[in-house]
Amino acid sequence: ELKVEQNPLFLSMQEGKNYTIYCNYSTTSDRLYWYRQDPGKSLESLFVLLSNGAVKQEGRLMASLDTKARLSTLHITAAVHDLSATYFCAPQWGATNKLIFGTGTLLAVQP
Amino acid sequence: GAVVSQHPSRVICKSGTSVKIECRSLDFQATTMFWYRQFPKQSLMLMATSNEGSKATYEQGVEKDKFLINHASLTLSTLTVTSAHPEDSSFYICSASDPGGRSYEQYFGPGTRLTVT
Question: Does residue B101 carry a pLDDT above 70?
Answer without folding.
Answer: no
